[in-house]
Design a protein that fits this description.
Layout lengths: L1 E10 L2 E11 L4 E5 L6 H8 L7 E6 L2 E2 L4 H6 L1 E4 L11 H11 L4 H14 L15 H13 L5 E5 L7 H15 L3 E5 L3 H7 L2 E6 L2 E6 L1 H7 L4 E8 L2 H10 L5 E7 L2 E8 L6 H10 L3 E9 L2 H9 L2 H19 L1
Parallel strand pairs: 3-8, 3-9, 6-7, 7-8
Antiparallel strand pairs: 1-2, 1-4, 4-5, 9-10, 11-13, 11-14, 12-13
Helix pairs in contact: 3-4, 4-5, 9-10
Length: 328
């Protein structure tokens, strides 16, 4: 289990992480979401012991990352956003080096490397220099490093960056498989990926927890708006007037697509308005050619919880400036 308690990280007066608390249960895959600059990578670096917090505590499987860092890190496999690989080493040399750093007993190292190489399908490139590998393969080498030592907890920051579609599917399948025996927390900008792979989702905004739960729970906590899409036989004006009389419609957009009249209708609170819409169009003599309901996606929920694009861009710019100042 991962326990993050009142975690904060300040750069001068800027709070990259601000009194953040959450728990990640054993055997669960958590998606960690937030706009650029929201504090995801900072939080993951602190959880992995790469960065010291300004305040707060992180417990990894019962060990404090601050007070018992060696014991805590032994239970963690960490893949940073930029894989920490050495380009002048071969894949096998690098994994052997990483095994030694993790203090895996010498007699177990070869077996651990073979397991990681097999899981990430690196056998064909194990004797090649990392500098000569594609970005996707370097990402897989970094993932293999995270698996060494069979850690109980995996922290993965953008694990599918740089991979082609086939490799992305393979990594998703691997993460699902690892989730059966590991605790996994991963960040990703591909929200469909989070929906497919993760059991629960954490969303942070400006370094604070904005929401936590299953995708279904987050949808229930959001505005609950439902979009009804339809195509109808009739004039735009007749369809618009008919929909205006239907009960429960909140927002109506009528337009023409490929010679047919279409409409997007928003209903608040998840109310089912199909019967009322059908009756209104029937009474107006407008034949329905197609109708389907679309619930709020994880993308919609994410945008609703994290604010407007302008707010995210401003925050990202501010955070980037702080990071540059901190590195100089």
């Amino acid at each position: 289990m991962i326990e993050v308690k009142h975690l904060s990280k300040f750069y001068g007066e800027h709070a990259a992480v601000d009194d953040l608390s959450f728990e990640v249960e054993d055997g669960t895959i958590y998606g960690f979401l937030g706009a650029n600059g929201a504090g995801k990578t900072t939080t993951m670096n602190i959880m992995a012991g790469y960065l010291a917090p300004s305040d707060g505590e992180v417990m990894i499987n019962g060990y404090s990352i601050l007070e018992e860092p060696e014991k805590a890190k032994k239970t963690i496999g960490y893949l940073p956003e930029i894989p920490p690989v050495y380009p002048d080493m071969t894949v096998y040399e690098y994994l052997a080096f990483a095994s030694a750093l993790k203090k895996i007993p010498p007699k177990e190292r070869e077996n651990q490397i073979d397991l990681a190489v097999g899981a990430l399908e690196l056998g064909g490139v194990s004797d090649r220099l990392i500098r000569n590998l594609s970005k996707g393969y370097r990402q897989r080498v970094g993932f293999a490093q995270a698996l060494l030592g069979e850690p109980e907890t995996l922290i993965l920051d953008e694990p599918t960056v740089g991979l082609d579609p086939r490799q992305i599917i393979e990594i998703r399948d691997l993460i699902r498989e690892l989730g059966r025996s590991h605790t996994v927390i991963l960040s990703s900008h591909i929200l469909s990926e989070v929906s497919e792979v993760c059991d629960r989702v954490l969303i942070i905004k400006n370094g604070r927890l904005a929401a936590c739960g299953t995708p279904a729970e987050l949808a229930a906590q959001s505005s609950g708006r439902t979009t009804l899409f339809l195509r109808a036989d009739g004039s735009e004006e007749a369809v618009r007037l008919a929909l205006g009389k239907a009960r429960g419609t909140a927002e109506i957009s009528v337009y023409r697509d490929r010679g047919e009249v279409c409409a997007d209708i928003r209903a608040d609170g998840g109310e089912d308005i199909r019967r009322d819409v059908s009756r209104a169009l029937f009474d107006a003599g407008c034949l329905i050619l197609e109708m389907r309901t679309e619930k709020e996606s994880l993308e919609d929920i994410f945008l609703e919880l994290t604010g407007s694009e302008e707010e995210r861009e401003d925050f990202e710019t501010e955070d980037a400036g702080v990071q540059e100042e901190d590195l100089s």
